[in-house]
Amino acid sequence: AVLGPEFKNQLKEISRKLSPEQKIRLSGQADRTGMDDYNTLLSKRRALAVKNYLEEIGVTNQVIQTSALI
Question: How many other CB atoms sit within 10 Å of the CB of residue 61?
Fold first, then answer.
């Protein structure tokens, strides 16, 4: 999944408001179009894309949990 510049800016703003002891849960989501297996993988990739970007900008791995929704 690719994050657009507007979304990256929103994530930067959110990251500035997080304290080191806060935990966040990211849930990627896809609609029901297509096969469930594909949608689950798509959901995971979307959540991981956000997690990876947050880590790039300094949010520590210990506070980020990901899950997939369809």
Answer: 9
- Cβ atoms of residues 39 and 31 within 8 Å: yes
Distance CA 41, CA 23 (A): 23
- Gyration radius from the chain CA atoms: 13
**pLDDT score of 70 more than 80:** no
CA distance 14 to 32: 29
Say if residue 36 is exposed, middle or buried (CB neighbours under 10 Å; 0-12, 13-18, 19+): exposed
pLDDT digits 0-9 by tens, 19-54 = 888 889 999 999 888 899 999 999 999 999 999 999
pTM for the whole structure: 0.86
